[in-house]
């Protein structure tokens, strides 16, 4: 069953579908999802217009609205759900993590997972200890849950729990999955902007996948090159 707020938003997106863009957007996402063909700048403009006219959704209705949008086949509907969640992130608590887990496990790809990990899960854990969920996700057989746990500290900077970051990485260091190797490198690269020496020592000490190592060293190598 849909939600009136979500239905109005879906109608707006449908009215602005663009057949010329659709095929290229679907191809870019390896034809895993169908699209209306609305590019990001246009979609953002439509979201601003919609929110101006309809207001932000009530926090208590957000789960129903998000689930209603997530069930729609077009990927832009899931992006719209992400935008609504992102604008309400400060109200999210660990009680919302079962909903977040649903989103991670449904229609999973990097385009939704990375925003969920760095913005929503990261924000929730920072203010409302989410240890139980993070440990469950890092031990999961689902690599999107693993990736979320590895990336949740992406924006923490000096607040990064280094021991947790390195432990989570080592738990999946042997993974052959591209999205895990990439996540490991990305997490290390971001943390190297705060503590390059710790990251350099970790990379030198551990036998990381070449992709993870290459990504993790990008910022450090730029620093060293700048120093001459």
TrEMBL record:
Q: Mind telling me which CDD domains this protein's record contains?
A: AlkD_like_1 (cd07064)
Q: Which SUPFAM superfamilies match?
A: ARM repeat
What the entry lists under InterPro entries is as follows: ARM-type_fold (IPR016024), DNA_alkylation (IPR014825)
What is the top-level taxon of the source organism?
Answer: Bacteria
Name listed for the protein in its UniProt record:
DNA alkylation repair protein
Tell me what organism the protein belongs to.
Rossellomorea oryzaecorticis
């Amino acid at each position: 069953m849909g939600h009136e707020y979500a239905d109005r938003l879906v109608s707006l997106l449908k009215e602005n579908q663009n057949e010329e863009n659709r095929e290229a957007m679907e191809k870019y996402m390896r034809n895993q999802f169908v699209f209306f063909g609305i590019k990001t700048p246009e979609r953002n403009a439509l979201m601003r217009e919609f929110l101006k006219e309809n207001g932000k959704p009530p926090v208590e209705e957000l789960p129903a609205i998000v689930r209603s949008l997530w069930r729609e086949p077009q990927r832009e509907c899931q992006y719209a759900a992400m935008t609504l969640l992102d604008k309400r992130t400060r109200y999210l608590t660990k009680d919302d993590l079962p909903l977040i887990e649903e989103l991670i496990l449904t229609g999973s790809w990097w385009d939704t997972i990375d925003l969920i990990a760095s913005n929503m899960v990261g924000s929730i854990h920072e203010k409302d200890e989410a240890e139980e969920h993070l440990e469950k996700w890092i031990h999961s057989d689902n690599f999107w849950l693993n990736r979320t746990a590895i990336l949740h500290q992406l924006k923490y900077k000096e607040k990064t729990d280094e021991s947790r970051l390195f432990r989570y990485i080592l738990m999946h260091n042997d993974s052959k999955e591209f999205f895990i190797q990439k996540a490991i490198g990305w997490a290390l690269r971001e943390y190297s902007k705060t503590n390059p020496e710790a990251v350099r020592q970790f990379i030198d000490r551990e036998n990381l996948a070449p992709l993870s190592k290459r990504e993790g060293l990008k910022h450090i190598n730029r620093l060293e090159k700048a120093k001459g």
